[in-house]
Amino acid sequence: MTEKIGFIGLGRMGLPMSYNLLRAGYDLTVHNRSQEKVRQIADAGATAATSTAEVIAGCDIVLACLPDVATCEAVLLGDDGALPNARPGQIIVDHSTVGASTSKACAAAAEKRGAMFLDAPISGGTERATDGTLTIMVGGPAEAYQRALPAFDVMGAVVRHVGPTGSGTAAKLVNQLLVGIHMVAAAEAMLLGAKSGADPALVFELVNSGWGQSFLLGRNAPAMLDRDFDGVRTQLRVFLKDLGLIQEMARELGTPIAAGDLAYKLLSEAVERGLGDLDSAAIVLPMEEQAGFEVRRVAAGGD
Fold first, then answer.
1. Partner residues linked to 279 by β-bridges
2. How far apart are CA 99 and CA 170, in angstroms?
3. Is position 104 annotated as part of the catalytic site?
4. Which of 63, 128, 207, 216 could bond 212 through an S-S bridge, CB–CB 3.0 to 4.6 Å?
5. pTM value?
């Protein structure tokens, strides 16, 4: 592995992605706001850094996976950030979910330094981040994509160069639009079936083998049935952030997203009610309150 890789942001996705790079034999330098995670992976062989500047100084390709737009812009575009201090020929990759304007600003900042920028958001959750089977959607220069591709292949099972700067971000937001809509639809369907008197576990089993099947139904229905909304998976507030970016994109393009608008409204209301730190399956809770009924497994004996 000749390319030295840097990774900034060791969160729920970034840490397992970094471990996969390390296991693949990359010379890996890592930085995170919480140094505890840095020490954890450093014990496994990574080089610990205490600043973004330290990562930039020592790496050929720098990957970032950050929780929100503000953090992303601070880490990548701030005075002490990655892009204002990038070197000619260096590649900076953003795996975060942001808007097109952020990706384009990053690309412009990279160009000023003679560096290259790739927007490369990811999909698949922590499970697929851990086993290296993420979907990675990449926008930016083809030359940079080809250089970064071996590293992407370590972290992802489906890796595609979508097109110019911003196109990876656009693909991710399309994905998140469907996630938000399917999340709401799964909750509505499970609640309707349960309140009708049908066994909701059987309704789930049957629908999930028919044309009504969706990844979000398969993911969220068991959590609804078991009332497991506190599991540290992906929180409602994260999806609300993404749907807000989708709202901006739709307005800029003058494209209607009626179902997306409804999903944004329902998630906004759920977060305002203090449910933002719960798993995405918790979108069913306000619906249950309105219906006066809960989705849960039928007790043994049918009681």
1. 235
2. 8
3. no
4. 207
5. 0.93
